């Protein structure tokens, strides 16, 4: 399993000690002037630990992960942008999207493991570690999902010629949405934990009903992503891929915590 580090001080409060505040005089009164108490406060400050530094660290991590994500998927993305939006091209679009699964997994791993201080940033190293570790396992989930989406896409694209009832199209759309929400959970779990493929699939399906708020939030993100593709271009969505990966990982926090507590040693 990719272990999730957790820590805290005495009593379960992270990073707090039981003593008086740094720089405080007797009775907890803050030291005044330029004496040793004030110097102690300055001496304990770490570079890159402030709010602005953490925000800069997040932006830097997103930019680096985005560049690496584009690098690992650029052949497929170029083909996807050049394809005409025709039902006959659905299988080709699925082939172009094959490299996206491992790349999203690596992005999820890197953003989950990233350091929040400027002094410890290494998003590129984390991305490549996640890519090497998770690519094979994620493809076992990503490829069958793409195959299913291909079948649904071809059926919906040629629906008028199929001669089936109208409710069948609505059912196919519901199945496609549910399967996409499932694969989002599956990619997150496969990126952060080492389970058998069948167990990842079960946990991803379990998470859909167990965490309805996260599922709804992911659905909203998928609607936004679909709107970007329909109104602008697939290229614009690709430029926001790291942001979407970060958002999906953020929504999955309750699921990640429960999987860690209940299904890992």
Descriptive report:
The protein is mainly alpha-helical. It has helices at 36-44, 51-82, 90-96, 100-113, 123-157, 159-162, 166-192, 197-210, 212-231, 234-239, 241-251, 253-263. The chain is globular. Helix content is 72%, strand content 0%.
Write the layout of secondary structure elements.
Elements: H1 36-44, H2 51-82, H3 90-96, H4 100-113, H5 123-157, H6 159-162, H7 166-192, H8 197-210, H9 212-231, H10 234-239, H11 241-251, H12 253-263
Helix pairs in contact: 2-3, 2-4, 2-11, 3-5, 4-5, 4-7, 4-11, 5-7, 7-8, 9-11
Features:
265 residues; mainly alpha; 12 helices; 72% helix; disordered N terminus
Q: Pairing-aware structural class of the strands and helices?
A: mainly alpha
Q: What series of H and E elements makes up the topology?
A: HHHHHHHHHHHH
Helix content: over 70%
The mean pLDDT is: 82
Radius of gyration: 23 Å
The quaternary structure here is single chain
Q: What is the count of helical runs?
A: 12
How much of the sequence lies in strands comes to: under 5%
């Amino acid at each position: 399993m990719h272990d999730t580090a957790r820590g805290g001080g005495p009593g379960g409060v992270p990073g707090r000690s039981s003593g008086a505040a740094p720089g405080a005089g007797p009775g907890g009164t803050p030291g005044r002037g330029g004496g040793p108490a004030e110097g102690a406060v300055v001496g304990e400050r770490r570079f890159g630990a402030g709010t602005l530094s953490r925000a800069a660290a997040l932006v830097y991590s997103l930019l680096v992960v985005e560049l690496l994500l584009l690098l690992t998927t650029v052949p497929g993305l170029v083909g996807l942008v050049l394809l005409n939006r025709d039902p006959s091209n659905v299988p080709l679009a699925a082939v172009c999207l094959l490299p996206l699964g491992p790349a999203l997994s690596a992005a999820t791993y890197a953003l989950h493991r990233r350091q929040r201080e400027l002094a410890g940033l290494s998003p590129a190293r984390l991305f490549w570690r996640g890519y090497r570790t998770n690519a094979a396992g994620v493809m076992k989930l990503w490829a069958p999902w793409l195959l299913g989406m291909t079948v649904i896409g071809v059926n919906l694209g040629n629906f008028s010629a199929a001669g089936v009832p109208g409710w069948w199209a609505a059912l196919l759309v519901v199945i496609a949405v549910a399967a996409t929400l499932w694969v989002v959970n599956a990619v997150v779990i496969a990126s952060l934990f080492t389970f058998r493929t069948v167990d990842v699939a079960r946990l991803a399906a379990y998470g859909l009903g167990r965490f309805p708020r996260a599922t709804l939030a992911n659905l909203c993100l998928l609607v936004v992503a679909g709107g970007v593709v329909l109104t602008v271009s697939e290229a614009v969505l690709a430029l926001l891929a790291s942001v979407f990966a970060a958002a999906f990982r953020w929504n999955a926090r309750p699921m990640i915590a429960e999987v860690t507590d209940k299904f890992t040693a």
